[in-house]
Amino acid sequence: MLYPIQNSHRNKLDLSGIWDFATDPRRSLTPEDLPGEQNWRPMAAPGSWNEQYEDLFGYLGLGWYVKKTHVPQSWEGQRVFLRVGSANYFAAVYVNGVKVGEHEGGHLPFAFDITDAINWDGENLIAISVENELRPDRVPSGNMPNSSMSMFASTPPTTFDFYPFAGIHRPVVLYTTPQTFVEDLTVITDIDGTDGVVTVRAQLNAEASGAGTVKLTAGGKEVAATVLRFAGGLAVVELRVPNARFWSDTDPYLYDLTVVAEGSANSGEDAYTLKVGIRTVRVEGGQILLNGRPVKLNGFGRHEDFPASGRGLNLPLIVKDYQLMRWTGANSYRTSHYPYSEEEMQMADREGFLIIDEIPAVSLQMADEANFPERLRMCLQQTDEMIARDKNHPAVVMWCVANEPMHAGVGVGALGESDPRIEAANLPGKRFLDALVARARELDATRPVTIVTVMGGPQSWMEQCDVICMNRYWGWYTLGGQLDVARQKLAAELDQVWDRFGKPVIMTEFGADTIPGYHGHPSVMWTEEYQADYIRMHLEVAAEREFVAGMQVWNFADFAAVQSIARVGGLNHKGVFTRIRTPKMAAHVLREFWVRAAAPVRAEPVTA
């Protein structure tokens, strides 16, 4: 899961660009047929195929990407890997007609050793098959009878309210390593007074013994270093950084950590460098503490979504979105509803954003126990892969293992109310979710773990969470157009949840659909004025309660959704920016609360 890098010991070749592409709805193609006489057409990767061709908009079946490339002969003698940053949902990889591996689940990377399949004297044919069929046993699920999305009569038939983009969504790269190499690094930081404590766990790909070094540098100057002693391929050391500069949302300072494994005569030396932020995160009472100080996670739910690129990596958009989020005064977002690109995580480290990192377990239908075993297997795999990929990012301050799991019964958890029969029906769902929370804690004890609950869901599902994360739509889906009554209901529910759990509460979703440029006086639903009033009301209620540790608006920008009578133009219009990033009135309300309200008051000059 280490991000591919180029240095004096490793090589990297990015294969992103225009590939040949063909659909295969009957699954009739085989690697021996490629490239063949099929109706191939150009396709950008990264990018969602649904956004690049009109006739592929609703296509979620099998597609083939094909590209020819030379592998530099200077790489011979090293191990060569092919890595895909994300392919949604199921992918198989072939090199020169040989299947080298397959991967299930989108949004997380996978890599295969292709050394033995390479043709060193000519071109190599890389073929990747991808399909994103919506099935009840997948995570997330689709094509389910009586799903939570049936009210929308949605097309495609998802259980979730965003478009199920298909394709290769993140870079495809070739990279090399020595024969024995640093396969994994785990960096855990702590604070002791003014000193930083950095624990490094380095794992080789083989159970080898030997020596190495690890050093921490700042501005090119070494601040700490020590010797590594590998035993069984593992070395664990601790570095102390005197008078360390701690990473935070207001000062996102990063050190360079470099691990060198000396290797042997046959394997060669290896080295890997990553960015490290020294910081701590913990929960105490109604507060989230960053480096021992209370912090509020104010910002957004978001989506990787833009015209033409769909869910594909879009680097200029990342830069633009971070600038716009900073303009509103935000310092946080949730990767709703799947892990975002590694490039996003690197930007968050650099820019000081606090991230709730979430697996793709969105809208799991907890009344559908028949598919529990497959879904649980997939959720555990996604949790393992997400934490393995993102554990070293200082920006990631919390793990989320589910968004809006859908319960049996309606309104069972509203204001703490319960029906014993419905609660009993939801016990299997609780065990499912508790298992995911426990897995995340087992893999990483340094960060809080949560699930994000749906409006009216069982409060018992929150019991194992370190932070209570709630999606609530008082004034939109419930009590729409009645903001005065909605204010009372919201305040009452926040107080009841705090009284029951005594844990920090983050509103991870609250929002109102708004057609850009549609105005009303008085403000009515779907107008920009109503969205602005709606968000202002929520921020005012939260400001009266110290235990509210964050407010994340749904959504940062309008995004592609299913087609239904509730989604005008196939978009979810809850963004405070349009899909092309034009601000609505609500964006200025956020700026008022998060920037201007936080600005220091300038003292007036004293006059005689």
What does this protein structure show overall?
With 608 residues, this protein is α+β, with helices and mostly antiparallel strands. It has three domains: 17-170, Galactose-binding domain-like (Jelly Rolls, Sandwich), CATH 2.60.120; 182-276, Immunoglobulins (Immunoglobulin-like); 282-596, Glycosidases (TIM Barrel). It is built from nine helices and 32 strands. The strands form eight sheets. Strands 23-24-25-26-27-28-29-30 form an eight-stranded parallel barrel, surrounded by five helices. The N and C termini lie far apart (67 Å). Mean pLDDT is 93; it is low at 600-608.
Which features does this protein show?
6-stranded antiparallel β-sheet; 9 helices; Jelly Rolls; alpha+beta; 30% strand; TIM Barrel; 3 domains; 8-stranded parallel β-barrel; 608 residues; single chain; disordered C terminus; Immunoglobulin-like; 19% helix
Topology record:
Layout: E1 12-14, E2 17-23, E3 41-45, H1 49-52, E4 63-69, E5 79-84, E6 87-88, E7 90-95, E8 98-104, E9 110-113, E10 124-131, E11 167-168, E12 172-177, E13 182-192, E14 195-204, E15 210-218, E16 221-230, E17 234-241, E18 255-261, E19 270-276, E20 281-284, E21 287-290, E22 293-295, E23 299-301, H2 315-328, E24 332-334, H3 342-351, E25 354-358, H4 372-390, E26 396-403, H5 420-425, H6 427-443, E27 449-453, E28 468-471, H7 483-501, E29 505-509, H8 528-543, E30 548-554, E31 559-560, E32 571-572, H9 585-596
Parallel strand pairs: 23-24, 23-30, 24-25, 25-26, 26-27, 27-28, 28-29, 29-30
Antiparallel strand pairs: 1-12, 2-3, 2-4, 4-10, 5-9, 5-12, 6-11, 7-8, 7-10, 13-14, 14-17, 15-16, 15-18, 18-19, 20-21, 21-22, 31-32
Helix pairs in contact: 2-3, 4-6, 7-8, 8-9
